[in-house]
Amino acid sequence: MPYVFYLRAIHFLMLCEILSLGYGANVGMLPKATGTSSSNLPQWSPKGDAHPDSGASTLPLFTLNYPRVQIPLEITLWVLLASFAKIGFHVYHKITVWVPESCLLISIGLIVGGIMHSVHEEPPAVLTSNMFFLYMLPLIVLDSGYFMPTRPFFENFGTVLWFAVVGTLWNSIGIGISLFAICQIEAFGVQDINLQENLLFASIISAVEPVAVLTVFEDISIHEQLYIVVFGECLFNDAVTVVLYNLFNHVAELHVVEAGDVFLGIARFFVVGLGGMLFGLLFGFVAAFTTRFTGKVREIEPLIIFLYSYLAYLIAELVAISSIMAIVTCALTMKYYVEENVSQRSCTTIRHVIKMVGSVSETLIFFFLGVVTITTDHEWNWGYILFSLLFTLLWRGLGILVLTQIINPFRTIPFNFKDQFGLAFCGLRGAVSFALAYTLPDSIGPKKLFITGTIVIIIFTVFIQGITIRPLLKLMNVRKTNRNLETINVEIHKRLMEHTVAGIEDLCGQWSHYYWKDKFMKFNNRFIRKILIRDNRPESSIVALYKKLELQNTMEILDSMTGDISATPSLISLHEERKNASKSRKVLPSDVRNMHELLSKNMYKIRQRTVSYTNKHSLPNDVTAKEILIRRHTSLRRSLRAGSFHSPHGNKASQKFLSLPVNSRLPPGRFSHAGDGDNEPEMNLSSVSSMFRHPQRSSSRTTIPLRPLGSLKVVSSSVKVVDEENEKQRGYRSSHLRSSFTSSAQQSSRSLYGSTRNISDEDGGSEHEEQESPPDPHAWVQDPQNNSDMQHPLLRRSQWPPQKPQDE
Amino acid sequence: MGGSQSDRAHKFQHLSDKTGFSIDQINSLHKRFMSLTENEGVLRREHLDNIINLAVNPIRRQITGAFFDKRNLGQNEDGYLQEIEFEDFLTILAFFTPPKQGTSEEEKQNIKKEKLRFLFNMHDTDNDGFITLDEYKRLVEELLSSNETIETETAKAISDAAMLEVASVTMGQMGPDEYYEGITFAHFQKILKGIQIETKMNINFWNLDTIRVQCGKSK
């Protein structure tokens, strides 16, 4: 059982931790790298000095210089432990379906904290204010900022900002004032907390945490508007909260607050927010401009992105404007342009690394929250804490109710009651709140009470709301959407619709975001792109999608040709890429035209052939017969044919294919808001997901020998015989596997056919699942006799027993 | 004067019942209509050609066409009118009203169907019930016409691919001699099932004159 193994691994790691703690007793467990934790340095230096001394006397056979490596070692171990925890949750992924990951992380943290407490260990001094604000927070927000789905975000821009700014202000001020009122009641004994401190606390606990909720949203594929509003709200709400936090932090240290200060505070609020946005825009454009020139030095492309984002953050911090705003705007701005400039692999790396550091940083905070909950001494005040919990929930609910009433008339699709409930219920508090509370300066009197209160609120919301939100939303049957649309038709009609709406609006003198989008796109195409993008070729998203699908197919073919190289972006491949810089550019925007022409000719032939095939025989009525798939068939057929020459290998491989789906249900995308731009080409989801699937693909492909690309066109008839033999075997086999296979047909096609993934995703949602879900296992039915060369592995799979596919 | 005033109010009330617009919206749309038609009261194609913003819209031909399309105007015949009146104008715009809250599932389906039908009619210029490859291609070309760099080859490739996609999704098995002649409305509905048109093809008809909120009355 992997789970047992995982537990053992955790135990082992804990042991390591404890041992290391025992050794470096009383030293901050994860001390800040710069070494501000005071207990750290004194201990470190004497031992460091001691070593050369002992080395001078005799040459030791074996030395243990723990202090030297202590800091990085401990950090590594913590991160490793947290990562193991994450792996573990997904190994046994039934848990994560019902319990959000943050709950599990906190629980693990609680256990570790309990152990540490029992050995009388000091709480680690990791989370200093600087550590959090300079290293962890930027990573978290960069993650969300970069993966913000652009199109729906701008479509709901107003609402998002409305909830993020006004909603957070509403919460902070509402909670702050009502808590202040509570403080006046003598029975609770907290009269010493003044209004400023209450407001500070309130601002801390109004930061809403998206990850848990968004994961649930992804899984039940909730409708776009709700999704994006929660996403955007959480993101910008962090920015607002931090601004408020700093503001109130400042104010809380003043003893007298004058009316002038209040106005200054309000003015500052706007200066800070808008300033951050401007900075972000500036850096975003500069970053995009820089990547224009990285064509020859591919390996530093990802670095450019990280450096500029971080620079935006730091400089914004330097001049004390909203650094979160800056980094988020920077990420949003540059994403679009950068991803056209950089190579496919750099793009993959960027996404991967951003995702990784973001989630690690968040994981650590949750983990740490658990530890701190046990190890610090709390100041518990029933009245204050329970009332703050009550007010948190109350003001959130009220806020959503009132704010949606105000915003609804302006929305094309107003939020209905269910949506409002969803919004209100999604107000989990999380990592940012905790970090803010924990890093409060000591000069704040009731700091301990605040930390305790924050922890209680976080644990309550994360556990109770986090666990119940999925069943509740399911129960309420909130409006769903099919978020994986990527077919040419859909794209065309989306455009068509947008243009129509824009046209009609022009016609009756109305305007909306379509109007602005039109205007912006024109400006963008005319000026911005020319400056920022190396090979500027303004293109419609339809063409982009079409090219993308074609490109994917090509990549597939190339992939199978070059084996593992693309799967492991190693140093070698980087070098190779640099060597072939000009050559590999051809695949990417620069000379898609050549490629495209080449392809479209090739494709066109295939297409014609396919059409005739359509006439002669039959097309499977689902996934398989899409344009791309047909091309894909060709490549698959080719590879299978290659396999059939090495018959045993080929069989083995196909067996692997067939058995894969049975237990390879992919875990519900943990951070799948990575991919929520499915329906917008800019997001280029497929490259994200393809990178996740690379290993799988390559491993299942290793048995396939390389073949020249030219065989794409070759249709060998001699192979057919061999194929048909294999076919029969497969046919029988598939009849055994059929039921399980089809029940997870979607997964299987995901894992099997990299390039067709989009389509099968889409189909799983729209056509495929509805029409031929498990009850009808013969999705890809073909007539075995008619096995012409255009019928391929895909069809073969379940062609036994033959049956007519149902049609409309 | 008073007579015509109340007459007009009565007429607007009638239109409001028919199209679902509020009286205020109808008033402001009427103003717009009159200014478009230069107070003639009947709208002709050349009026629409004068709109500057519309001139840059890649599919203006289809959009203006839709206003004069008899099929959209609830008439059971095809072909195009030369001029339309205010009532027809409103009928067309009514395709774009957002669904109100509390509409039943069935009504929503109807709204969706109507909107799709509107799009379909934009495609199907010869009204034979099929979107043929040629029609499709022409539309794609026009959609892409705003980018100068796109060659017709691309448009052709795309429309081919799209057509094939439709054929494969909808037809499934085809007989040996069958030829996919075009997208029927049923197929059209099927391929665009996931697009949630009822949440997208909407316009909030604000009353721009008074900047008062007129539309999307939530309750």
TrEMBL record, chain A:
The lineage of its organism: Eukaryota, Metazoa, Chordata, Craniata, Vertebrata. GO terms for cellular component: plasma membrane. Residues 567-668 form the Sodium/hydrogen exchanger regulatory region domain. Residues 661-705, 718-808 are annotated as: Disordered. The keyword Transmembrane applies. Residues 721-730 have a biased composition (Basic and acidic residues). Gene3D superfamilies: 6.10.140.1330, 6.10.250.2020. It comes from Triplophysa rosa. Its main location: membrane. The chain crosses the membrane at residues 6-25, 75-92, 98-119, 131-148, 160-183, 226-248, 269-290, 310-332, 353-376, 382-408, 420-438, 450-473. It comes from the Eukaryota. This is Sodium/hydrogen exchanger. Residues 80-474 form the Cation/H+ exchanger transmembrane domain. Residues 761-773 have a biased composition (Acidic residues). Keywords: Antiport, Cell membrane, Ion transport, Membrane, Sodium, Sodium transport, Transmembrane, Transmembrane helix, Transport. Belongs to the monovalent cation:proton antiporter 1 (CPA1) transporter (TC 2.A.36) family.
